[in-house]
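Is pyridoxal-5'-phosphate placement plausible here? Inputs below.
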Amino acid sequence: MTHTVEHAVENTVEQRRILNTAIPGPKSAELHARKNAAVSVGVSTGLPIYVERAAGGILVDIDGNQLIDFGSGIAVTTVGNAAPRVVERVQQQVADFTHTCFMVTPYAEYVEVCEALNELTPGDHDKRSALFNSGAEAVENAVKIARHATGRQAIVAFDHAYHGRTNLTMALTAKSMPYKHGFGPFANEIYRVPMAYPYRWPTGPENCADEAFDQFVSAVHAQIGEANVAAVIIEPIQGEGGFIVPPSGWLARIADWCAANDILFIADEIQSGFCRTGDWFACDYEGVVPDLITTAKGIAGGLPLAAVTGRAELMDAVHPGGLGGTYGGNPVACAAALGAIETMKAEDLPRRAREIEAIMMPRLQALAEKYPAIGEIRGRGAMLAVELVSDPVAKTPDAALAAAVNKACHAAGLVTLTAGTFGNVFRFLPPLAISDGLLNEGLDILEQAFAVAHTPPAADKQPDTD
Ligand SMILES: *Cc1c(COP(=O)(O)O)cnc(C)c1O
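Reply from A.M.:
I modeled the complex. Tokens:
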């Protein structure tokens, strides 16, 4: 079955994998030496091929290699790289005007993006939005709004959470290396509670939902006090933490308990939002309506834009001038968002994400039957991952295998990403504009990468089958 998006991009970059040189090639290697001499070592690169052009599901590097994209620049180019409607709107906008600062002299594009967000995000209540530059900035502002609207200070975040790299969002993020190590002190009044992580729940996945909920309620009550909590923030499917999907119904229980205690429920949908999981937002699948929702990444087809959307009375509780920033809701980024949202509607990209799941799932399941190192397959839509373990019974995280599979995929011209608190999750975030052909070719490469990278466990390490 061919997908219509293919036609839109076929004149830009041929949707075909081409390997001209080793990966990375000589020109990329040369540029990488310059990078190492010019760019802070703190900013590292996962796959140092230097990109010259990209469209649909293909990245073209400066050595003329064409790589299949299973990462979307970390869930950003959901509509495809340089998507036609995004390019057209951006080109028009950048020629019209580039900046005024919305807080000085406003423009229609900002308002139109907010109208679209208010319409598309979960719930049909009265909503308002505000625009920012990055996901972390949106999360910071959601916290500011929650504190201002409730008059309370404490924020509750979960194990394995990722909310960004600024000072406040580092405090919300769970993992130390590389995000927080040596960068403290961190913001206070942030409290961490256990995440409902079925695969690693100590007493087994069947007990995860109830026990995780009880532990959450008990920790908030005993250690913080409900009356001190402004908000609970959670990714409906955790991103950097390893695509952890809580048990069905668990998010709704948390949200209901928050509502009963006048605590705001903030959904961080920066990675899971905008069609990625097979719905417009991951909360839709669970029927959860957050008080505040943060979005970024997929919102603008690659331009930097982020938003907080929420109940009108919360968003309007802030005094005039209390929110903003020089570039927040830049007109070019807003034009890109309007082009991206138009594409998502016209191409029915939630449906496309479900099609991608239907193609990928059986092949990942076949792979898991062959390799017991795949401890779990999880995720929804085009946000899927496998968790790798060196011992399927003890579930010992195997970060080395994840790194080896990643390396083998890269060498074969497939751009892939790892994730997870233990570095042992191999995740898939293909652009929704990818063709079925490229998707299957990427999965062929993945199979070969497992064959290359997988070393069977030593005989004395085999699980006891008696
Ligand atoms: C990426 C991400 C962020 C941070 O977004 P930036 O644009 O990198 O600041 C926050 N929350 C989640 C869930 C993310 O995936």
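Short version: The CA atoms of residues 241 and 463 lie 27 Å apart.
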